[in-house]
Amino acid sequence: MPRFSDEDRIPGAKRSRRGDRAAAVGGGEWLEVVERVGRWVRVRNARGELRVMPTRGAKVVVADRVRVTEEVVVETAPRSTTLERTGETAGTRLVVSNVEQLVIVTASTDPPFRPGLVDRMIVAALAGGMAPMIALNKCDTGMPEEVLEWLARYEALGYPVFLVSAVDGRGVPELRAALVGHSSVLLGHSGVGKSTLVSALVPGAEALVGDLDAWGRGRHTTTAARAYDLPEGGSIVDVPGIREFGVGHLPRQELRRYFPELVGLACRYRDCLHLGEEGCVADDTINWSERLESYRKLLEDCI
Q1: What is the predicted pLDDT for the residue at 5?
Q2: Domain definitions of the chain by residue range
Q3: Which CATH architecture has domain 6-76?
Q4: DSSP state, 56?
Q5: Residue 302, pLDDT above cutoff 80
Q6: Across-strand partners of 63?
Q7: Rounded CA gap, 19 and 14, in Å?
Q8: CA distances from 126 to 154, 259, 285 (A)
Q9: 73 exposed, middle or buried (CB, 10 Å; 0-12, 13-18, 19+)?
Q10: Which of 52, 88, 107, 300 has its CB 3.0 to 4.6 Å from that of 138, i.e. a possible disulfide?
Q11: Count H helices, E strands: the chain?
């Protein structure tokens, strides 16, 4: 990893509040954040060497590139992509950055398939510059026809779908092939078996889960997010299961851009929100009423 002087600072990069004082001491080095636990991060240099340090107020997430001086994060490089979510209690939060693909991990019955959540995650991925795909895990427990119909419709919209089982291995090679050579994040509702799927994708990942000795914390402390390298190339970020995921941070007029079936409708007005206004043709044109209703529900939450 090359070292940078203060004059070589990446344009548009953000400094932490302590950055100016720390940067004055020396140029520092650019590192990749591979794990975050509370106010601590694990960073990696180009040689693969790992270090643990406090964030000291810097707002960083896994996959960020940060400049470190005297073991202090002083600057965050511009992010190529972002994944944000809105919650009722915590406002809008950045989940991860600088990854190309979002793998939406879901299940069919345990927990139940939630198309509304899938829609919200697809929207968040597209808004942040990521390519979404869907992995239906726990296929060994059954795949109801209704769920398969939903997935077929998503695939028809251009979102890749993988039917996998982290238990018996079905579909895992196909999913891995789609991840090799790319940076991806796995995200899903609590209980969909995401961590087990990560273990199936990354040999030895089980040994890494919960191993937090380097933090000076207990082995059973939950990690906020962690990046893993795929043996064949590429990387995946494992994020803990979520209980709420909203897109209320998006502007209302922007939301329809992330529903491809709504793009280019011949409504009377170009700024039609497809709520059944005068001259709106959405109800007569869209043959997937549940998806249209999902869009309209999301619209109620947007700013």
Answers
A1: 32
A2: 6-76, 82-238, 252-301
A3: Beta Barrel (2.40)
A4: T
A5: yes
A6: none
A7: 9
A8: 14, 10, 23
A9: buried
A10: 107
A11: 9, 14
The Cα–Cα gap between 239 and 19 comes to 28
Distance, CA of 273 to CA of 242 (rounded, Å): 29
DSSP character at residue 129: T
For the cut 60, the answer to whether the pLDDT of residue 8 exceeds it is: no
**Is 82-238 assigned to CATH 3.40.50.300?**
yes
pTM confidence score? 0.87
For residue 209, pLDDT over 50 is answered with: no
The Cα-based distances of 199 to 51, 135, 215, 224 in angstroms read 23, 15, 22, 17
Contact between 219 and 210 under an 8 Å Cβ cutoff? The reply is yes
DSSP 287: S
Question: Between β-strands 82-87 and 72-76, what pairing exists: parallel, antiparallel or unpaired?
Answer: unpaired
> In angstroms, what CA-CA distances link 147 with 106, 128, 210, 253?
11, 27, 33, 30
| DSSP run (H or E) holding 139 | none
Q: What are phi and psi of 15, to 5 degrees?
A: -100, 155
Nearest one of 252, 260, 261 to 298, comparing CA atoms:
252
Tokens of 108: 């069919």
Angle, helices 172-179 vs 194-201, to 10°: value is 80
Q: Tell me: the pLDDT tens digits for 278-297? A: 999 999 999 999 999 999 99
Residue 126 three-state SS: helix
Least confident of 32-46, 167-181, 213-227, 288-302: 213-227
Of 65-69, 230-234, 238-242, give the lowest mean pLDDT range.
Answer: 238-242
Q: 201: phi > 0 → left, psi -120 to 50 → alpha, else beta; which?
A: alpha
How does pLDDT run across 10-20, given as a tens digit for each residue? 334 454 444 44
pLDDT the model gives residue 223? 53
Contact 36, 71 (CB under 8 A): no
Q: Which residue has the tokens 């915590």?
A: 90
Return mean pLDDT, the chain.
Answer: 87
